[in-house]
Amino acid sequence: MLTISQLARHAGVTVRAVRHYHTIGLLPEPARDESGYRVYDAAAVVRLIRIRTLADAGVPLARVQELLDAGPERFSEGVAGIDRDLRAEIRRLRDTRKRLARLAAGEHLALPPRVVDYLDRLRALGVREEYVELERDAWIMIAAQVPDLLDDVIAEKHEQLDDPDIIQLYGFLREPLRWPADAARIVQLADVVERLMMRAVRTGTTGADGMDDQFVALLDAAMVESAPGAERLIAILEERGWKGWTRIERVPGERVGGEAG
What are the residues whose beta carbons fall under 8 Å from the beta carbon of 13, sequence distance 6 or more? Predict the structure, then answer.
């Protein structure tokens, strides 16, 4: 006959675990000797080893009892059911990790899935994360200020990502815009932006529909502050007869050149 500490040692568990299994009914309480101590036999060792083996395999303690008392067929069915539950839990945890990763990026917290998908498309184009974050912050403001416009605006932005000029524009954002004010690349960037502005005027999609002037000015200011070259870019466009970034306007009395390319 064995004491509780001897039983625990033979089964490879702790005395505390044995007492817990007694409490939840997995291991029946044994008879006590004349001194009031529990005494265990070989059957208790075998049952405790089976409990430990199932628990170590990942079987929840709440399901261990049914497997201990099951015949071969029910045991196999029970194990298969536990495996299905574990696979579902793994999928749930993976989804949770993905959501947490995006929350860490500050996106899903305040933006709907279509906007997050758009930001992911920018990343796939190689756009630097600092510029993706600027776009993200602008979308957060748009979602908060004009939520009724968000679906139409983001649908249009998704379509624009198939435009070669848009892809070329974002191509400039694969590197930091730390160019000097007279850098040739700023002029190249202005050429691309001007083509897009001309097209927007022709099609009547000059942007910022439903947004008030103050909010448009806020979005424009965020863009200008994004990089040293941005202010020079806006200045070049104004010299060519364009005004604004979020809402495109032609400056009255100024010459607008023909579309390049």
Answer: 48, 52
Encoded amino acid at 224, one letter: V
And the tokens for 110? 């305040």
Residue 259 resides in a domain: no
**DSSP states of 94-156 as a string?**
HHHHHHHHHHHTTSTTTS-HHHHHHHHHHHHTT--HHHHHHHHHHHHHHHHH-HHHHHHHHHH
> Mean of the per-residue pLDDT values for the chain?
84
Range of the domain at 46: 4-101
pLDDT at 260 over 60: no
pTM value?
Answer: 0.52
Tens digit of each residue's pLDDT (9 = 90 or more) over 242-254: 988 888 888 765 5
Residue written as token pair 């306007």 = 249
* One domain for residues 86 and 170: no
**Measured between alpha carbons, how far is 74 from 68 in angstroms, rounded to an integer?**
10
Within the chain, strands assigned E span 242-243, 249-250
How remote is the C-alpha of 223 from its chain's centroid?
25
* C-beta of residue 109 within 8 angstroms of C-beta of residue 99: no
| Total number of domains in the chain | 2
Residue 3: count of CB within 10 angstroms of its CB: 14
Chain mean position to CA 78? 35
Q: Are residues 25 and 80 in the same domain?
A: yes
